[in-house]
Amino acid sequence: MPLLKGHYNLEKHSIGLVIGIILAASVGGLVEIVPLFTINETVETLPDMRVYTPLELAGRNIYIREGCYACHSQMIRTLRDEVERYGPYSLAAESQYDHPMLWGSKRTGPDLARIGGKYSDAWHVAHLTNPRSVVPTSIMPAYPWLATTDLEVDDLGAHLRVLRELGVPYTDAMIANAPHDAIAQALPDSPAAAGVVERYGQKTTIRRFSGASTVTEMDAVVAYLQVLGQLTQAPYAKGDALDEVSQ
Amino acid sequence: MIAQLTRAERHVGFYLAICLTFLGLTMAAAGNHDPMGVHGFIALGLGIVLIFAVGGTLEDPEPDPSRLQRYYDDPTKAAVVLAMVWGIVAMGVGLWIASLMVWPDATFGQAWSSFGRLRPVHTTGVIFAFGGNALMATSFHVMQRTCRTRLADQLSPWCVLIGYNLFLVWAVTGYLMGVTQSKEYAEPEWYADLWLVIVWVAYLVLYLRTLRLRAEPHIYFANWYYLAFLVVVAMLHIVNGLAIPVSFAGAKSYPYFSGVQDAMVQWWYGHNAVAFFMTSGFLGMLYYFLPIRAQRPIYSYRLSIISFWGITFFYLWVGSHHLHYTALPIWVQNLGMTFSVMLLVPSWASAGNAIATLNGAWHRVRDDATLRFMFVAAVFYGLSTFEGSFLAIRPVNALSHYTDWTVGHVHSGALGWLAMVTFGAFYSMVPLVWGKPAMYSARLIEWHFWLALTGLLVYVVSLWNAGITQGLMWRTYNAAGTLNYSFIDSMEAMRPYYIARVLGGALFLAGICVGAVNIWLTIRTARDVAHDRPLAPQAAE
């Protein structure tokens, strides 16, 4: 068989094998990944989609640091029971500014894509400090140090700048004011709070997320959890989302 | 071990140790308020130890030229020991985090010991530390025997091994300090990723240089699998690891891709880490050690060609089956599902080829626990790949995804296939490279085998039950047409299965500890070289 004979000869050339492996292994990725950047419908255009504030971004980074994604997904699938349990299914555009995405792969705990606004700040603070104080049978770890660790804000401008390089539409003013905005969003009485609304929009929530007078990591995490699913209202406005659900 | 290096190799090694020390010093100085600084100090410490270890021997005499008549197995030996140590640590952490699912307060209030930080220590520890060191140990061994040549030089295997283990130490200590990119199975940050690229290129170059020196015209097909492992893992790692650091003085970076594209790249990487790290390299291991131990030739050469290229081509398409029913466009989901089902053909061709090789040697499978390890590995390879194709079918995935079924599936692959074939290979290889007639105790191998098999079955059966129960509870409607169970109901239902999982994991961990003791008792006494295969071709008698 000529094909077999060809392979018989290929086995004598290590570089030939390497090239063969590279060619065979490249096709799948090229066909499946490259069009995701070129086909426009892949990511919807949502006019009201906003970026994370510096405080929310800091909270997101703590969420990553603590490995929350190992047990909580942020991706509601187009299945009837998921839509009824968690809310409208997730759109690609909702995570378009997420470097990295946190869709997750496991639900030891519930999905968090639409957790924002479902519980009070005080509930989140109590739950993060000791989950079993509000959900007696919970197996979530306790994160008491969040409320006692001051939030690091000095380098947030650099974070926003890198994200802008990657395509997230942060403005010069947002980058310049990032550390102030992070603090101000958790201190509604401070004079800088108005600037946060000016830069990130009327819908930005400005309150003492942790209830304490200093800005801690707890403020950042709760601010992030409360904005999940709230960066855009488009998924809720799609009418009866269930119509489009398969199954 | 250092005395085996030539003077030129010792000199180059000495300068490389100085470079590592400076790298560590730079990182420690730049990242002095950041976890990256801690990693700088680790590299600095390692560099200084190496400087003193090598520096004291620079002017020692050249090693005995008779060493060139034997294979160079010192790096293999070190990698075997490292793999066993990492294996016990990583599986121990796995047992701990399995216990956290039952007793969530067993974190002692410490940040580093919460589930989210320990979980990547377990996954990186098992896959990349235990598995990776096992792959290095066996690849160094197999390429020399199948090419009938020595490693191309004596220094670069040490650079690869030490560099790779430094990467691993950075990775797992980083997780404990909260340094992570959050990309599953690719958590280490940018500087560790860059370091791994250097190490990996050195590994590939060493492999290709050794192949070039081979005394056999044909490259034995175990080596194709090791080559695919080396080449494709490099491709995956580089693309998925693209990121911009916030500052060169800190660990934090932001990945290049976002949202749906990031998800697709991540699972293109993630599933092919399964394919080319956890499968391809270990198939190389299987296809060398199984025929040798069974004393039978591989059943079919043609089948091995089909399975090799099938795996290399099909696997790269299937990552999107991790994203069924998500915001990923449906055409990609359908492609992923289709190729996942087709992948069963080369996967079963590989498993079948291995099992058919045992025809005529079943009495050895019965009597020899080492061979039985590899037989069970081939069986679980077949079962896991069937399960994988099944779970990749969209409607099945609707039930199984996000549940513990996935975790059970991964463990049937990682424990049943990856670990089992590694133990079989180690028990075949350890007596050879340490120059012993056999392992210290055949009974301890039997103990290890039955502990591992029992633990594995308890583990996967409990998580199959857990996952299916979870998936069904989430979608159960009552007569009124509303969801019947709250999320917390489904979580409470998991408790008995999670307890059973702890038990299964404990048995498996006990098994590897027995294995480590057996290996230690085998290797602690001096070498007797008579049992190894000859390096030079031998005249027929």
What Rg of chain B, in angstroms, do the CA atoms define? 24 Å
Oligomer: heterodimer
CATH superfamily of the largest domain in chain A: Cytochrome c-like domain
Q: Averaged pLDDT of chain B, please?
A: 95
* Element-level helix/strand string of chain A: HHHHHHHHHH
How large is the radius of gyration of chain A? 23 Å
Largest interface: A-B, 90 and 98 residues
Tell me the CATH architecture of the largest domain in chain A: Orthogonal Bundle
Give the % helix of chain B: over 70%
The best one-word shape of chain B is: globular
Strand content of chain A: under 5%
**CATH top level assignment of the largest domain in chain A:** Mainly Alpha
Q: Number of helical runs of chain A?
A: 10
- What percentage of amino acids of chain B are in beta strands? under 5%
How many separate domains make up the residues of chain A?
2
What is the averaged pLDDT score of chain A? Answer: 93
Q: Can you give a write-up of this model?
A:
The complex is a heterodimer of chains A (247) and B (541). With 247 residues, chain A is mainly α. Helix content of chain A is 42%, strand content 0%. In chain A, helix 5 (121-129) packs across helix 10 (217-227) and helix 8 crosses helix 9. The longest helix of chain A has 25 residues, at 14-38. A two-stranded antiparallel ribbon of chain B has the order 1-2. Helix content of chain B is 70%, strand content 1%. Chains A and B meet through helix 2, helix 3, helix 4 and helix 6 of A and helix 4, helix 6, helix 7, strand 2 and helix 8 of B.
Short structural description:
The complex is a heterodimer of chains A (247) and B (541). Helices cover 42% and strands 0% of the residues of chain A.
